[in-house]
Amino acid sequence: MTVLSEPLPTKKTRLARFLAVAGPGLVVMLADTDAGSVITAAQSGASWGYRLLWLQIILIPILFVVQELTVRIGVATGEGHAQLILRHFGRFWAWASVATLLVACLGALLSEFAGLAGVGALLGLSPPVTMGLVVTALIVMAWSHSYLTVERIAIAIGAFELVFLVVVMLAQPDAATVAAQMTDIPLHNDKYLYLIAANIGAVIMPWMVFFQQSAVVEKKLTPEDLPAARLDTIIGAVLTQIIMASVLVATAATLGRAGEAADLDTVQRIAEAITPFLGEFGGKLLFGLGMTGAALVAAIVVSLTAARTLSEMLDVKCSLDDSPREAPWFYGAYSLALIVCGLVVASGVNLVSLSVGVQVMNALLLPFVLGFLYLLARRLPEFLRLRGWYAALCAAVIVIAASFGVYSGFMGLFE
Prior knowledge:
Distance between the termini: 78 Å
Number of strands: 0
CATH superfamily: Amino acid/polyamine transporter I
Largest sheet: none
Radius of gyration: 21 Å
Strand content: under 5%
């Protein structure tokens, strides 16, 4: 008697499975390298040369551990992060998490739009014109496309961040100097410690947890998809940190070569500091493309995160696969957030104080968000539950990340 069995998966079928699953991790990681993260990396290179380059490497596994918990929870439960907090911890904690998340998302959206306005200024466009083009494009994209299409658009836009690799090659960093400074770690210096905390805060952000879990649910991934989803997440973590490292190295190579240091707190200042060493036109073009990719993909992610999370709490439809008529609250919240933030940036208001406040709030929010993430992972079904040595490792990573986040937040309050 012949016993029939399923054929073993081939390399071709495994690749097809991965391509079908991949997307949420890559999108959220590309969004992670947003305008604020690029500015943080540039400031690190300008202030300390290559002495913070080691941190960009160390942050890869830390970032993966945090987001892997998000994927694990999403595939196991099929529910969004806010829904799970509501079910396990009650309405008060759910609305508290959603309220702080919405403020963080709106603050992040203002920062991304400010970055795009800065790129527009490099091209001679006024903020109202830049905001009009950006807001219209983002609204049309969401209202007329499914989740899968929006995911592909976000990846294509985020791919422009790879031009920072070209910038590094043009800057021609000295390998001996890179090696020497990477091993010179002045942990006794408070300003150096503050930039360590700022880099951690720039890489691990609360809205990433909410977005990737919602995206995993919207894509209808199951526990069988977990290996591919993990691979998607680790590829994204490596890619985003390569981009961060590239910005740091490019800034250190150009400003360090001239013996200069500067406060690079806007897109214009980064461009002005680096383009003289790369060529006026070429430098502005490359940084303009990179910053546009970074800010646009982050704007897509944070605006969708705010709309989805609010809709989850109101128990209304919140999928891009639903039409605007089927999910009016979701599309309305998404569009309103874009329009309001676009009008604020177009007005020319000074966003420096607001940006600092948002970064401080994000940092102080990390213990709250990561704490719930850990507790939820401990309540999963047995076969996916966080336990043993990996639970201890995740707890250590979360404590370290949250501690540096709080340190960064309080330092920002007293600066």
